[in-house]
């Protein structure tokens, strides 16, 4: 038997009337949009359309003000289950509005490319368990201090030097293919001289070997 709330199961909080909760008051909002009308008919769930109505420009503006993403300082948008392209586009629409966010979690969202997104005030970003393959696919984060990229598919350290001119202090690259390349830690700290911690381990003396020693390690002496 269907519950009375079944017809609202694909609604966002902005679609529910008689409340004034704004986006910057929520730390873990569900922002994934529901299926399209065609998909609902295919699923035989057209009964969920009964509560829907034509959205006017005034209601769109009311929703924009209620979402209030521009004033979010700390936000968790993890585990959104973005199964359809239009859901991904709506997700990116929200990210583009996060002009004041300082701490942002986007864990396990099957994300592949956020290079068109800019987060000008973001100091802490967690994009673990996604599908990034390159540092070039990350959003623009000029003020980043703590970045977690664990469990992605980053093959090489190419592009990591783009963070050289940021205040990045802590970087997590655990469970990425690049973690297994030779001299992994030395190459990361060489590219990011201001970095203090990699994969939860502070910078060690052996992580910043002088150039002549590094050259010596590459030589092979035959006796």
TrEMBL record:
SUPFAM superfamilies: L domain-like. It comes from the Eukaryota. Keywords: Leucine-rich repeat, Repeat. This is Protein tilB.
């Amino acid at each position: 038997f269907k519950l009375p709330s079944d017809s609202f199961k694909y609604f966002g909080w902005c679609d529910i009337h008689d409340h004034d909760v704004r986006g910057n008051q929520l730390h873990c909002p569900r922002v994934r949009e529901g299926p399209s009308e065609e998909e609902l008919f295919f699923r035989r769930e057209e009964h969920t359309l009964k509560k829907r109505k034509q959205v006017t420009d005034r209601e769109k503006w009311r929703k924009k003000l209620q979402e209030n993403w521009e004033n979010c300082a700390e936000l968790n948008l993890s585990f959104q289950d973005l199964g359809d392209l239009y859901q991904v586009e709506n997700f990116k629409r929200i990210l583009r509005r996060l002009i004041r966010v300082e701490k942002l979690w986007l864990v396990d969202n099957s994300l592949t490319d956020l290079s068109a997104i800019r987060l000008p005030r973001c100091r802490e970003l967690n994009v673990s368990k996604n599908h990034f393959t390159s540092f070039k696919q990350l959003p623009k984060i000029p003020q980043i201090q703590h970045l977690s990229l664990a469990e992605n598919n980053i093959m090489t350290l190419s592009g990591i030097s783009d963070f050289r001119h940021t205040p990045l202090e802590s970087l997590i690259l655990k469970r990425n293919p690049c973690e297994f390349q030779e001299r992994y830690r030395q190459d990361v700290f060489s590219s990011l001289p201001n970095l203090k911690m990699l994969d939860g381990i502070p910078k060690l003396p052996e992580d910043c070997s002088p150039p002549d020693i590094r050259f010596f390690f590459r030589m092979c002496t035959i006796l």
